[in-house]
Amino acid sequence: MIDLTHLDDLARRLSDLVPPGLRQSREELQSTFKSALQAGLGKLDLVTREEFEVQRAVLLRTREKLETLEAAVAAMEKQPPQG
Hints:
Elements: H1 4-16, H2 26-43, H3 49-78
């Protein structure tokens, strides 16, 4: 999930960039910016940090297993043929 405090901060910063003559509706601009940011980010295929870390751990375990299997195959290939 996206941290809404970051969106609030970004919306506030964007509204600060609006020229002074247009700042009468600053709160309305912040709300509009926040809504636009939420809508845009909602369309992206993002994962949470927790989901990312879980997948990272799975990948690490998979790499370790692959290295173990590669070493086992290499050892088997060095053995003389039986038969």
